Amino acid sequence: MTGARQLRLAVIGAGASGLMALIRLREAGFQDVTIYEKAETLGGTWRDNRYPGVTCDVPSHGYRYSFEPNAEWSRVCAPGDEILDYLKNVARKYDLERSIRFGEEVSSARWCDGRWEIETTSGPQGAFDAVVTATGVLHHPNYPDIPGIDTFEGDAFHTARWKDGLSLKGKRVGVIGTGSTATQITGALVPEVAHYALFQRTAQWIAPLPQGPIPEEQKALFRERPDLLQAEYERISHENNSKFAAAIVGANPRAYEKLVQVCRDYLETSVRDPELRAKLTPTYAVGCKRLILSENFYEAIQHPNAELVTDRIERIEGRGIRTADGRLHELDVIVFATGFDTHKLMRPMEARGQDGRTLDDVWAEGNRGYLAVTVPGFPNWFMIGGPNSPIGNFSWLLTAENQFGYALKLIQRLARGNVSEIAPKREASRRFNEQIREALPGTVWATGCSSWYIDRHGNIASWPWTFEKFEADMSEPQWDDFEMA
Ligand code: N01
Asked: Which residues lie across from 9 on neighbouring strands?
């Protein structure tokens, strides 16, 4: 970068978004960039989630960095370890690890004399001109508040804290929860365990998604024809954004009707027993909770080893789970597939902004920002996956690249030298949040269900518009909406 100020930059998190941010920053000429990563290895969600059956439910040729095509995906929806390997290969190719400080959890970031003072669990790290948070959304495990949870005598763990090396072969396994995670585990575990009990509090809508192997000839073709590989990426992204993502925000009613029909037909034709089918039939709108995509859940839950338990869990005891009908479900292992606290975002880190207020103070009644990337009072603080990011709408990698592309323009403005602080105007943020409030009732998330999109104040945390609007909003900052000093 000639003629520009060299900035000292911190990125928090070495998951898929943090790695992408580092690549983009280096490409843009920024050399003094450090990623702080709390764990000992990179990979974020794909490092943490190692449960049996973990796969991506976005087809892999659409779930990759736009700039790093991969002809080698083994399956239509790649297993988690293959995605982790992809991220490791990208890190190797771009020599990223030399800029990552592993085992360093950022405990505080304080705006002080025009820079961010960062402290990690091992002590102060000095001052940075700007901070990029890439801490993800689905990473704080949510443990259920069930009486007796600590009294269980067998193994019990959350899906994102899988006990490596534990064989479940021939064991009696109870899984609590019926989200995407539990659904994938069910498909993978039922055939190998002695007995599988799935504790369902709320039924979920499921759309069928073929996830089988990609034939060798297809891989060879993609290797030889990068144009076809690129066309496939664009096709999958377009399909998802114009149909599914538009449908759930009310922008494509025909696609929504079709989605509803597909889910109903899938349930109807897959589950033979009317009693079981009734238990598996949700009472809320398709897409209100994050839609599940699966090709084997219905089959697995009808396996002779499997049981769907819909009686309320009363307590956990030494030998298993006691339900409200008085029955003790005797188990060797309990798995909490109970999701994540999705509203904690980058906390428990304490981020203290311009006027001495922390993000906890500013977000006491719900996380709010401007266009999901910046927050008033927090200059030079750029979030990938901030409040009202598209979560569950578009591919996360596509979202992250767009958001970071926008943040990069703000960082480049800082580097030009005539401006050293950029933060959104309070009025711009107020206006954005007003627009969010107006748009949310038109989305399916607001049709009356509980879900991880909704925080404890009742705010819905996602992006209520189409991909086209998102792309347009991220294409260039509205400079009038920023205070610069
Ligand atoms: O979590 P969830 P998840 N007693 O919050 C139940 C992404 N993901 O880990 O619905 C009993 O969806 C809860 O019940 P209810 C994806 O975006 C992606 O499955 O609240 N049950 C629910 O059934 C997904 O949406 C992939 O009544 C309790 C379940 O636990 C997101 O991660 C794969 C309970 C939690 O479901 C989260 O999915 C996997 C209690 N006390 C996940 N507390 C991909 O393939 C909670 N539950 C990319």
From this structure: 33, 130
Tokens 């940075």: give the residue.
128
Tell me the domains of the chain and their CATH numbers.
9-140+341-484 (3.50.50.60), 155-213+220-336 (3.50.50.60)
- Dmax (CA) of the chain: 74
Task: Judge residue 400's burial from the number of C-beta atoms within 10 Å of its C-beta, 0-12 exposed, 13-18 middle, 19 or more buried.
Answer: buried
Contact 358, 375 (CB under 8 A): no
- Predicted model pTM: 0.97
Mutate to test the pocket of ligand 1, among 64, 139, 180 (most ligand atoms within 8 A of CB): 180
Place of tokens 């933060």: 423
Residue nearest to atom 17 of ligand 1 (CA): 392
Burial class (CB in 10 A: 0-12, 13-18, 19+), 162: middle
pLDDT of 292 reads 97
**Residue 346 structure tokens:** 């980058």
Ligand 1 pocket list (CB less than 6 A): 55-57, 138, 144, 146, 176-182, 184, 201-202, 290, 313, 337-339, 392, 450, 452
Q: Which residues pair with 109 in a beta bridge?
A: 118, 351
Spatial separation of the C-alpha atoms in residues 329 and 237, rounded to whole Å:
44
Give residue-wise pLDDT tens across range 71-102: 999 999 999 999 999 999 999 999 999 999 99
- C-beta separation of 234 from 227 below 8 A: no
For residue 337, the one-letter residue type is A
Residue pair 222/439 in contact (Cβ under 8 Å)? The answer is: no
2 pLDDT higher than 60: no
Q: What is the DSSP string of 252-278?
A: -HHHHHHHHHHHHHHHHHH---HHHHH
In this structure, the number of other CB atoms found within 10 A of the CB of residue 450 comes to 11
Pairing of strands 333-336, 155-158: parallel
Task: List, for residues 418-427, the tens digit of each pLDDT value.
Answer: 999 999 999 9
**Which pair of structure tokens corresponds to residue 173?**
């396994």
What is the predicted pLDDT for the residue at 3? 56
Residue type, 287: G
Dihedral sign for Cα atoms in the order 123, 353, 402, 129: negative
**Phi, psi of 304, deg, nearest 5:** -55, -25
For residue 431 the two structure tokens come to: 């206006």
